[in-house]
Amino acid sequence: MTNSSTLHGALMDSVYRYQRHIYDATRQNYLLGRDHLIAELAPPIGGSVLEIGCGTGRNLIALARRYPNARFFGIDISAEMLKTASGAIARQGLYDRIKIAQADALTFDPRGRFNREHFDRVFFSYTLSMIPDWTGALAHAVGLLKPGGRLQVVDFGGCEALPTQFKRILDWWLSLFHVAPRLDLQHTLEALAGSPDLVRFEALYRGYAIVGGLTRNDRGSACSSV
Ligand SMILES: C[S@@+](CC[C@H](N)C(=O)[O-])C[C@H]1O[C@@H](n2cnc3c(N)ncnc32)[C@H](O)[C@@H]1O
């Protein structure tokens, strides 16, 4: 890992060293839209799915149960979070279908970690808002897709239809965890796709959460909507 990866990994470890024990129970009611993404992901039979920033493995385990014919991969920069993920995956008896590794979203090389180059689906769930160079992470993720593969994102939105005071308190609360909503996400996806028409983007729960994505075309560039 690079110097900045090591520093960011240490920061994430400091956030999650104790939080990881209560993470799934405490985030259930405020990391909204994750099950929406899981329902939409629909990998092909025999397909491969990568979660970048898999945390406790909560999403990968739900996906493996929902899509029994696909294979799942997860990376996370936090060794602490991966301890919880590894235990949860083993307890569910899913060790043969979910592989996880420590890596940085910005530099991850799947050949070294998982002995493969590309995935049918790549997703970020409440992770881009914790990555300082989140546009770099998105661009890197597009390069991990197979032609025809889909990139999907769920994260905090701009809370446009919620009271200003609510948004102010939420922003303060999120900053305690080094989380910053990526208000430019739609435009960044559009820039990666090359056209606004080619990106799907939806605000959920009055703008509290956003889900979006793009599809990589046969020539290997991101170009069409989810
Ligand atoms: C808010 S948690 C979300 C976990 C999980 N995706 C979920 O939906 O419950 C964000 C996760 O992203 C990881 N993360 C942050 N920056 C990362 C990076 N640069 N590369 C890989 N993982 C990262 C953190 O360690 C943490 O586990």
Number of helices: 9
Radius of gyration: 17 Å
Number of strands: 8
Give the ordered list of helices and strands: HHHEHEHEHEHEHHEEE
Q: Any ligands, ions or cofactors bound here, and which?
A: S-adenosylmethionine
Largest sheet: 8 strands, mixed
Q: What structural class is derived from the secondary structure elements?
A: alpha/beta
Distance between the termini: 32 Å
| Rounded mean pLDDT score | 92
**Estimated helix fraction:** 25-40%
Shape: globular
How much beta, percentage-wise? 15-25%
Low-confidence stretches: none
What labels describe this entry?
globular; binds S-adenosylmethionine; 226 residues
Short description:
By secondary structure, this protein is α/β, with parallel strands linked by helices. Helices cover 38% and strands 23% of the residues.
Task: Report on this structure.
- The protein is globular, with a radius of gyration of 17 Å.
- Strand 7 (209-216) and strand 8 (222-224) form a beta hairpin.
- Helix content is 38%, strand content 23%.
- Strands 1, 2, 3, 4, 5, 6, 7 and 8 form an eight-stranded mixed beta sheet that branches.
- It is of the alpha/beta class and 226 residues long.
- The mean pLDDT is 92.
- The chain has nine helices and eight strands.
- The protein binds S-adenosylmethionine (SAM).
- The site of S-adenosylmethionine has 24 residues, from helix 1, helix 4 and strand 2.
